[in-house]
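Model: Ready when you are.
Researcher: Fold this.
Model:
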Amino acid sequence: MAPLLSMKNVTAFYGGSQALFGLSLRMRQGEVVALVGRNGAGKTTAIKAICRLLRHRSGEIRFEGKDLGPLASHRAARLGIGLAPEGRRCFATLTVEENLIAAARPGHWNIDSVLRLFPQLRDRRSKVARTLSGGEQQMLAIGRALMTNPRLLLLDEATEGLAPLVRRNIWEAVSELKSDGELSILLVDKSLRELAAIADRCVVLERGRDVWSGTFDELTPEMAVRHLGV
């Protein structure tokens, strides 16, 4: 079966600084993959390249067999790639409901289904995003991505800086998304314990290269120290 997402020997640069050095990655439909590595390893750069927020210099990125290279970010999104970016980046002056409908596309995910996933947002529906707590803004960012009805959901540091209870709520929501079995999810997060509980496998990045791939059970403590510093 052809992969849903395929990255092959991808290189990417920020100006003259190279950030990805031949990165390769494959994901199947319905698979949950964790992208892990030290700060600066290239995780967010890989996410940006998939979403076309950053154009890769060489190599190939395909989604459902279609070459993403020539596409603008909004066209990649229309193919079925949804992003909840690092730092949330909600539309601060729009209400929760307006944020959700801003990029909505027809499908299973609508305002009602998002509010069922994140009931904390129900009473905040008419509030502008800048008045929300950090955790509520993160839920809104994920909900907004789901409203595009993606095939692939990219979650970049979805629990960073959040209180433990809110982190647990986010992970419970991600677990619910996984249980559906249709949505593929690429996760970037620093918490290996939570990632190990939900991801089918992980891909370790080091200095812009993929250096290891396997299940978390196969990631030995020695390898974790060597590649992740934990």
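Researcher: Now this one.
Model:
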Amino acid sequence: MIIILKENAGKNECDSLISMLNEKGVKVSGINGVNHNILGLVGDTSKLDIELINAQPVVERVQRVQEPYKACNRQFHPDDTVVDAGGKKIGGGHVQIIAGPCSVESEEQIISTAEAVKKAGATMLRGGAFKPRTSPYSFQGLHGEGIKLLLKAKKATGLPIVTEIMSAEHLDLFADVDVIQVGARNMQNFELLKQLGHSDKPVLLKRGLANTMEELLMSAEYIMSGGNNNVILCERGIRTFETYTRNTLDISAVPLLKQRSHLPVVVDPSHATGIVSLVEPLSRAAIAVGADALEIEVHCNPSKALSDGAQQLKPEQFEKMMENLVPMIEFCGKKLG
């Protein structure tokens, strides 16, 4: 990080700034230029508050010369991280297919869907027990009862389960869940992320609807700075001006995140588009650019689903998609499961 000082910066003010920075644990070296003086900072600058530094009267502007995230940065961890999720490896040449309904609605619904997706080749089961909805009048999920039903489906099929958390107050309910999902709306719920950092349970962190990749990585940093390195990044589409799809899948995020970070990357083509017919082609694209897993919504009767029926595949559609997808996974030199 470098700090460019104002032309009229006084010595006493500069010394005060340098003293403050030294107290933060970084070393400061001065560079005298023709028009400006510059302070070069050496050390762990990731925890420095740029806005606070910018607010100092002698500071013209602050520039980072490296990313503010350390724990998830590939520069400091060149090897890919492989996350063990209930016995399934995410990353390291493995591809997991996480499939299931948007919402857990009943015991019959979740178990029948789990059995169908497993038969078609899915390796993990997804299902929402807590559902963040735009309207307060929409179905909000079965909460703790939904998690119990997911565990029944796991017992019936052996599939590890992935489900979303919405509040740190609910953590105790997730004791037997294999992967805790943080949804797009909670990507910057920093208090929740801090609590998940004290857990050793894998966390699937979804990119926010209007967040940059750096902001996603900084959210991952919150979890990892607490000691939990079992983080999985998820690209699920961002909000743009396009109206033909629910969101716009940023397919470039997959290779870019892999260049910047060592963490595995998942793609959710269901939420990215909201359209059943686009799920398979975008799943292929995700595998082609290096995704470590796909999260796909499947429902035995989408027309009667209590949430997001338009984006959920029927079991027979999912089965056909898997028939086409498995050869591509193998062609890309990866292994299903």
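Researcher: Key takeaway?
Model: The longest strand covers residues 94-100.
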